[in-house]
From TrEMBL:
Pathway given in the UniProt record: Protein modification; protein ubiquitination
Key words, A-Z: Nucleus, Ubl conjugation pathway
Subunit structure, interactors included: Component of the SCF-type E3 ligase complex.
GO CC annotation: cytoplasm; nucleus; SCF ubiquitin ligase complex
Subcellular location: Nucleus
Gene Ontology terms describing biological process: gibberellic acid mediated signaling pathway; protein ubiquitination; SCF-dependent proteasomal ubiquitin-dependent protein catabolic process
Function, in words: Acts as a component of a SCF E3 ubiquitin ligase complexes.
F-box domain boundaries: 14-54
Taxonomy, superkingdom: Eukaryota
InterPro entries in UniProt: F-box-like_dom_sf (IPR036047), F-box_dom (IPR001810)
Primary localization: nucleus
Descriptive protein name: F-box protein
Pfam family of the protein (one): F-box-like
Length: 283
């Protein structure tokens, strides 16, 4: 009677096959395989396996292999480990902010004053002077949890002024616009002014009234915000109808931009930046 063939699963692979496979392993798998047993540790630590891996990943350290710094010479596996640790220490730590968007309140004020000329009587003589009409203003308050977060996770927020049946805000061609954007820490525990500036906006329909202001540096923050940051505020404008020389403000967009890339920073980077100023107790 024929003997049954031995199960393949019960027969270990030939030693030569393991060595051939080892030459095609990545560093992490090779290091893990060396922990199986003592014989594997000796085989998987051989220089002929680690030298090409070390050379490919850390060519700038290859001169250490031939430097007479120790006796016996340092193995390529050991040199790879040194290079890996050194590279990891050079990478900046990916810190997460403890401040969250729900901890913040955005307060945006828009005021406008008409600069039309007026005729004023002075000692019986008509004198032309600037007599601005009383200032009109709009203040928008948005809690962090009410702000729509961008799908790409950027520190940029669009606020619709026409929601909930709010009355339209109309400005004319000769009106000076002043904008102030403050960020308040919930509970009135801190405040940071992002923008305080003014000017005139374009009268073209669908134009944007763009205001920006450079912000102070915060050295503790990620590279994305430590290289220079501006606060960004845009008024979304549309025609007021009737051919009048006025436009209607229908939205406000606010954000934080890097002056290096002129792109909006990520939400986490923006929160890290604000955290430095809102949580800084050294005052």
């Amino acid at each position: 009677m024929a003997q049954p063939l031995p199960s393949l699963s019960s027969s270990p692979p030939p030693w030569e096959v393991i060595l051939l496979v080892a030459e095609r392993l990545d560093p992490k798998t090779l290091a893990t395989a060396s922990c199986v047993c003592k014989s594997w540790s000796l085989s998987m630590a051989s220089d002929h396996l680690w030298e090409p891996i070390f050379t490919a990943n850390f060519p700038s350290l290859f001169n250490l292999a031939s430097a007479p710094t120790s006796s016996p010479p340092v193995s390529f596996r050991r040199l790879f480990g040194l290079g890996y640790i050194a590279a990891a220490r050079r990478r900046p730590a990916q810190l997460k902010p403890t401040l969250s968007l729900s901890d913040l309140v955005f307060v945006i004020s828009i005021s406008f004053t008409d600069k039309d000329q007026s005729i004023i009587a002075c000692d019986g003589v008509n004198k032309e002077e600037k007599a601005p009409r009383p200032q009109s203003s709009l203040t928008v308050v948005k809690h962090g949890e009410e702000l729509p977060v961008e799908r790409n996770g950027l520190f940029k927020f669009d606020i619709n002024l026409n929601e909930n049946g709010a009355a339209p805000v109309v400005i004319g061609a000769r009106e000076e616009v002043e904008v102030v954007w403050n960020i308040v820490l919930e509970g009135w525990r801190g405040v940071f002014t992002m923008i305080e500036c003014g000017g005139r906006v374009g009268m073209a329909p669908r134009a944007d009234g763009w205001f920006s202001e450079e912000l102070p540096a915060a050295g503790c923050c990620p590279n994305a915000v430590s290289g220079g940051i501006v606060g960004d505020l845009r008024l979304g404008l549309c025609g007021n109808g009737g051919g009048s020389n006025k436009v209607r403000i229908e939205s406000v967009s606010v954000g934080m931009m890097s002056v290096v890339s002129w792109r909006y920073v990520s939400l986490d980077d923006g929160l890290m930046y604000l955290q430095h100023f809102l949580f800084n107790a050294n005052v």
